[in-house]
Amino acid sequence: MTETDQKARAASEGGGRLRRNLAILNARLKRRRIPALLPDAYPRTRLVLAGGLLAVIVITLSLFSLDSGAPGWSEALSPLTEGVFQFITQFGKSGWYLVPVGIFGLVLLFADWTRIGRSAAAAWVEVADLVGFFFFNMAAAGIVTNLIKWTLGRSRPLRFKKDGIFTFEPISFAHEHVSFPSGHATTAAALFVSCAYIFRGQPVVVGVIGVCAGLMAVSRVAVGAHFPSDVVAGVFVGAAFTVFYAYALGRSGVAFQRQPDGSLMPKTVAIRTMFRREGAATMVEELWAALRGARRG
């Protein structure tokens, strides 16, 4: 077999793996695995609705009490403080997360999980589910925010002296008229809530990510890119979308398992079992075998 034939065969096999894995994922997403909810679960629904009402109240209060003073506060920051926030705000760009996670997700989709042990395959499927949740959640939350931005067309703080805080240019794509909500704040909130679900039971990890996400959100006001109400709205969009998406996946048992009390648990049993019995090195070796399409060893 020539080198060209080998490449063609590899490409054909890779395409077959991708189609097979996508078909399996589609079938899993169509399943419905919803446990009967305990009576204590229903107050959680009211808490979600109360959270939405609270967001509306905070956005309104920010609009009328904080927004007008935000540009002046931003301009009064020292050069050092401004430089720190300029550095922090860069990490609110969704590309920092979407590109590497998206590439990793594609790699997993092209693997042949029938070629490795069942324990390793189950662990990597759990990883792939969580990776897919994280990627699509971040991407979709950002799209929702952009649609709102373009529809409302609120002027940014850079036009504060001319436009004030209540100027809108509906259906606008211009940078100076896409202030509400903050896209960086949406990314920060989606990042934090996603990780809070994925790393449930690990408060240190979740806490560190929460502090970083909070600084990202505040940085948008500090660098003069958004008003406080923009940031609050962005946080709400990112957090709310993540919650609804996670629960939607939980209905099918993909990435999360919905509990009788209404909460969600990340599906990581196979991952933890594999790490405990075999270790991270074996996980990587099994992944490489799945990508090569040949049994490890």
Automatic annotation (TrEMBL):
Entry-linked Pfam families: PAP2
PANTHER family: DECAPRENYLPHOSPHORYL-5-PHOSPHORIBOSE PHOSPHATASE RV3807C-RELATED (PTHR14969:SF62), SPHINGOSINE-1-PHOSPHATE PHOSPHOHYDROLASE (PTHR14969)
InterPro entries: PAP2/HPO, PAP2/HPO_sf
Highest taxon of the lineage: Bacteria
Protein name listed in UniProt: Undecaprenyl-diphosphatase
Principal place of residence: membrane
Keywords: Cell membrane, Hydrolase, Membrane, Transmembrane, Transmembrane helix
MF terms in GO: hydrolase activity
Compartments where found: Cell membrane
Organism in which the protein naturally occurs: Bauldia litoralis
SUPFAM superfamilies: Acid phosphatase/Vanadium-dependent haloperoxidase
